[in-house]
Amino acid sequence: MTKKITMKTPIVEIDGDEMTRIIWKEIKDALLYPYIDLKTEYYDLGLKHREATGDQITIEAANAIKKYGVGVKCATITPNADRVKEYSLTKMWKSPNGTIRSILDGTVFREPIIIDGIKPIVPTWTNPIIIARHAYGDIYAGVEFVVGKDGGTVSMTHPDGSSLIVKNFGGAGIVQGVHNTDKSITSFARSCFNFALDKGLDIWFSAKDTISKIYDHRFKDIFAEIFEEEYKEKFKQRNIEYFYTLIDDAVARVMRSSGGFIWACKNYDGDVMSDMVATSFGSLAMMTSVLVSPEGYYEYEAAHGTVTRHYYRHLQGESTSTNSVATIFAWSGALRKRGELDSIESLVEFANTLEAATKETIEKGYMTKDLVGLFSKPGINPKALDTIGFLGKVAETLRIKFSR
Ligand code: NAP
Ligand code: MG
What we know:
With 404 residues, this protein is an alpha/beta fold. The chain has helices at 18-32, 47-52, 56-68, 81-86, 96-104, 182-199, 215-238, 247-256, 267-280, 308-315, 325-341, 345-363, 369-372, 387-403, and strands spanning 5-6, 11-15, 36-37, 40-44, 70-73, 107-112, 129-133, 143-147, 152-157, 163-169, 173-177, 203-207, 242-246, 261-265, 287-292, 298-302, 366-368, 383-385. The chain has 3 domains: 1-118 and 295-404, Isopropylmalate Dehydrogenase (3-Layer(aba) Sandwich), CATH 3.40.718; 121-132 and 180-281; 143-177, no CATH class. The chain has 14 helices and 18 strands. α1 (18-32) packs parallel to α14 (387-403), α6 (182-199) runs parallel beside α7 and α11 (325-341) packs antiparallel against α12. The termini are close together.
């Protein structure tokens, strides 16, 4: 390549913590700067800077994504009591991902990165299964209480005085009250349909409307209405489908499928199923994640955290073998989307080449330690590289691809 790719609009670059912060800088130095006149608006969400700004920086970063449309985020520490001590924090700051998600009102889609040589545990899953989890309400915003041995009545009284008995307890028991809102379900549906169009993949949605005739049925109805009114034609043009089915039927179909679709799940189903799917595809380090807002803003990141255990070893001067693939794919995702929105063909092509070079590097047998035990390909003896060594190999593969 002779000339560096120029960009029009900046990408919102959100830096983070620990091992992933080290990887972040190396990705830019080794894989991006040599090829792109990288234009970003930089937000440092490293815990020290969140503390220094009273976490205002997180809000500013989320608003910048609203302004520019595309962001890429490094993993960040969500403080707990130990972190408050470790970083002498004045407050246990909230999860940055939670803050950003609530400002963008988005849905998180998790997608596994498939490598020739790393077989999914479910052998038929030869294409990615992307899980969309509704991240609001249900048991995650539930109210629960214990009913004592003397029992009692749980009821709802409407403003007009009429009432509905939920349960008359004759003895001890438990109660759970859950809710959701039309607004949140509507946003979820739009994010799902937008992402399906973006990826050109079918989307499935599942719930238990046969048993939950009002609650789950409301989800089904809202999805159906939004689809009919806003997406049906666009889906036809893109040659993709929306498909609703019962959660049990969905599970059975998913197991028999070859992947290659998006599976939208209610909050709890998504929590559980995303771990199942991630496990089958090998490693959390091979899982990317994108937050899509109902307005069509995108924030790309790795699904894993800051890999604290490796970072502490790094601080001790020990060598680490931390997998950077999901973070590379977060960058390629953001660059591709930026290229598409600004009609910069070379940027889209670069993103595709970067992903291909990363996969090829592993397929040739160069990988981080976490993948060695999962990898099996005739004639190739997998080699475990350290964190920077692996990125160096990817850079080499990329150079070869561009010098051809
Ligand atoms: P983690 O950072 O995902 O790491 C958990 C373990 O998984 C690691 O110790 C490592 O196992 C393995 N692992 C994860 N990513 C890997 C990678 N890229 N390469 C190789 N191995 C990898 O989760 P955590 O330890 O529970 O959390 C650490 C910090 O990250 C916390 O402060 C948490 O708040 C934060 N976090 C942030 C996000 C986010 O920003 N999206 C998400 C989750 C967690 P071995 O040690 O066995 O090698
Ligand atoms: Mg879970």
